[in-house]
Every structure is written in structure tokens, then in C-alpha cells.
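User: Here's a protein and a ligand (FHN). What would the complex look like?
Assistant: Let me lay out the input and then the predicted complex.
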Amino acid sequence: MPHGPHADALNHRTSSARLAEFREQRLGLFIHWGLYALAARHEWVKQREHLTDADYQPYFDHFDPDLFDPDAWAEAAAGAGMRYMVLTTKHHDGFCLWDSALTDYSVAGTPYGKDLVGPIVAAFRARGLGVGFYHSLLDWHHPDFPIDGLHPLHGRVEEPWRDIAKYRRYLHGQVEELLTRYGRIDTMWFDFSYSTRLRDGKPTPGGKGAADWRSAELMRLVRELQPGILVNNRLEIPGDFVTPEQFQPPAPPGEVWEACQTLNGSWGYDRDNLDYKPVDLLVRMLVDTVSKDGNLLLNVGPDGRGAFDPRALETLRGIGEWMRLHGRAVYGAGPSAFEAPQDCRYTQRGDRLYVHLLAWPYRHLHLPGLAGRVRYAQLLNDGSEIRRLVPDPARDSGHTKLGALPPGTLTLQLPVQRP
Ligand code: FHN
């Protein structure tokens, strides 16, 4: 039986039903929004450009998102086939999207003046989407946050008057505000602990970072306030799911996981970044993720007026069109016991095997190990039959060969007998 400072986290067992519910959702929307949207360059703009609080203050003084429409956000997410959302309640710059009793550095002090978190939660809940809160452990505005090498101005400086215990009480207090004001919250997405950075890069698992935040206490608080909530792995102690970022694991991580990806390389709104990933690539990421039993969290950074920019909306619409036709190969689907050929990904749900082609096969599609198991083959998008050629006796490989494949991104639906 685990013991020690992280015993609670190690002993906690989240219900398999709750984890299954999360995994069935498969696709979510990440929303990075805050003062950095006015800088419109990158959510790390304060650190990257070594901005003082005074340099950054104009973004606070002019934060007035008059086009903010959470219903439109939720509509765009639902239209893209997304089943849940994760919102940055506070990012590293320390600015809070809700009226916190613990700081003046919140939306309440800006020209906009009103709570943003509540309306966003309500709009997504109204469409049946799950709600998650991202919350930064780092806080470049709080006077007691330690200077950690990531600080915008000071780099790594130990300023003895910074009291980590005071900052920790602030951090825990704000998490308590968030988890008691807005009803059921489905996931808590902390970001990020960094013990290795503080100890000159030497790995100190569960080290200073976890100690600074009192990660185990914070995890316990979260679970007490929101029974059934799922917590990610970025407190440096075991959580409910791991979070590969901006890459696709080459193999299934072997635990519940959620990949997070930007649409254009920037988490915050980045006005001049036109490098949006094509929908086809995002769809391939999604089927690769589901084939490895993961979820995909795709990010939009709303702009300084509170709107999703047209390029993001166009991308979400394209994903939504694909999901309208192919969602049954994603929602509630997962890895297959059959081994997919190199340029395919398999997802399976019940006796339906979905063959996602990532590259175009030369003439025929050879599906190893499926000889005699494929009763019928059709394109998923329109249900049209794919002529199946009986296994070629000259190539007794146990393959099933499919021919006459029409052009286009293909997902085949094959009712198969289980192995
Ligand atoms: O530093 C953050 C970054 O701004 C962004 O929020 C991503 C999203 O997963 N997390 C951190 C980088 O890993």
C-alpha cells in the first residue's frame, strides 16, 4: 500500500465508468484566452519579450471583449463534433477570467468587468458538452510566486521575501473558488509543475515543484470538492490521464491519455500566424489518437474581442463535416486487436472495424489476418459497397484484399468476427 506525501494520489482509484465516459468522448476543445489575446502574438509574450507588469498593463486596461458570445463558441465546438471543453481559467500571466475574491488581477477590474467563466460553462453545458478547467501553477504576476527561471524578467533568482506558502494558499484558494462556484466540473487540467527546472535540470520526481504546490494536498482538495472529477498528470504526481502535447505518441501510452494540439502552433490568439493545420491532417491525428485509445484536445485561442477567428471557425467546420460522416468510427471506438497495415489506422467498436487509410494503396488494400473474417466492406462516408476479392491463393497470407477503392480520404467499415 503506497504511503508518504503522495499516498492519496497513489491510492486514489477513479471509477472505471468515469474513465470510460471520458474516453468515449474522444474529441474536445481547448480554449486559451486571456490578456495575451490583445498582444495577439503568443500566450508566453510576457516571458518571451521580458515585459514588466507595467508593459503588460495596457492589455488589462483595454480588455473589453465586446464580441464575447459563449453560445457561439459552444455551437462551433458542438458543430465540430467535440464532446467537451477545457478553458484556461488562469494562465501563467496570472490574469483570472472570473471575479476572484483573492486578487484584483481578474476580469472584474477590466473594462469588461463581468465574470467570463460562468457564461462559458453554462453555454457548453447547455449543449451537453463536458466542462474542464485549465489552471496554471505558474503565476508571473503574484508577488510571492518564486522566481523560477521562467519568470519574464528575473530568470532564476531566489528572492527570500517571496513566500511560497503564501502563494500556495492563494493557488489552493483559487482552485477552491473555481470548483465551488460553477456546478459540476468534469476535468481539472493543471499546468505545469517543473521540479527538474528548479533543481538545475536534475530529475527530482515529485520534487520541489510538487512540494511547492503541495500537489498531493491540492489533488485531495480537488477530489473532495468535485467527486468524480478527472485530474491530469501535470502536478507531478499520478493523475487520471497523461497529456502528450503537440506530438502523437508512437505507441499507445498504456494509460488513459489525452493529446493536446494547437491548430496553428500557438495556444493563444496569434494574429499573424496563418500556418493552420489542414483539416485532413487534424483528422489523421484524431484517428491515430483513437487507434491508440486516446482523446484529442484541439485548441482555439479567441481574439481580444472574444471571437473565434475565421480561420479557426473554418477548420472547426471542416472537422465537423468529417465527424458528421465518420463519428461512429471515433465516439466509443478504440483500438482493434487486429494489426493494421503500415499506412492504415484501425479503430473498432463492437464488431465494426474501421480502416482509416493514411496513404493510398497500390491497386488493392491487403488487410493482414482478416482472411475469412470480412463479411462485407463499405465506405463509411456514403455506405457504398467495396468489392471484396477473396484471398488470393497465390498469396496465402491470410489477407483479405479489397479492390475498386474510389478516390478520397477513406474510412472503410468492416463488420468482422472478433479474433
Ligand atoms: O506553457 C504552457 C503553454 O502556454 C500551453 O498552455 C500548453 C498547453 O498544454 N501548456 C504549457 C506548455 O506545456
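Summary: Confidence is low (pLDDT under 50) at residues 196-206.
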